[in-house]
Amino acid sequence: SLDKNPNIRKIVASSSFTPQHILEFLAQDKAVLVLLPICMNSQTPQHTLENLIDSSNINIHLALAKNPKIFEYKNILNKLIALANDRVTKEIVSNPNCPPKILNKFSLQQNKVIKGAVAANPNSSPETLRMLKKLNHAYIDTKLATNRELPEDVLNLLLKSTLPEIRFLTIRNPNVPKNK
């Protein structure tokens, strides 16, 4: 971890096998290239991530939103949400560990990209997915079509879309019965 090459430090910071004390040490690095994988590493201690949240660097915030454990760390999550940055919010709702309650909350935002990320997340509740389908928005429908946890009624509605690209994406969904 004392290597002069930041790419080597980045590799060490990326590994889930790196001991926490090494991750804590690397979190002091000046190179953002090294800090980003620390932010995303599920083994990075919470207090180390809490020190990084106060950075003014948006890339640090985006990386923290990708951390698999971010939803266990309410203080960090609340600070990320308080940034009210659409890019950070999109990363939060794109995180495969994002809970349905948070996905539902962000499905109510006006931003179609955030709604699309909620639509694509397999953790979104069936109710949230049905509500997003009712918007009948092409971009959101394309994201819904890729969700492997889509309820059958929403799948059927997407299969009847007037837009061929939505039908194409829906047919490729693993939950579409073979006879459709």
Can you characterise this structure?
This protein has 13 helices and no strands. It has helices at 6-14, 20-26, 32-40, 46-53, 58-65, 74-82, 86-94, 100-107, 112-120, 126-134, 138-145, 152-159, 164-171. Helix 1 (6-14) packs parallel to helix 3 (32-40), helix 3 (32-40) runs parallel beside helix 5 (58-65) and helix 7 packs parallel to helix 9. The termini are far apart.
In short:
By secondary structure, the chain is an all-alpha fold. It has helices at residues 6-14, 20-26, 32-40, 46-53, 58-65, 74-82, 86-94, 100-107, 112-120, 126-134, 138-145, 152-159, 164-171.
List keywords for this structure.
mainly alpha; single chain; 180 residues; 13 helices; elongated
Write the layout of secondary structure elements.
Elements: H1 6-14, H2 20-26, H3 32-40, H4 46-53, H5 58-65, H6 74-82, H7 86-94, H8 100-107, H9 112-120, H10 126-134, H11 138-145, H12 152-159, H13 164-171
Helix pairs in contact: 1-3, 3-5, 5-7, 7-9, 8-9, 9-11, 11-13
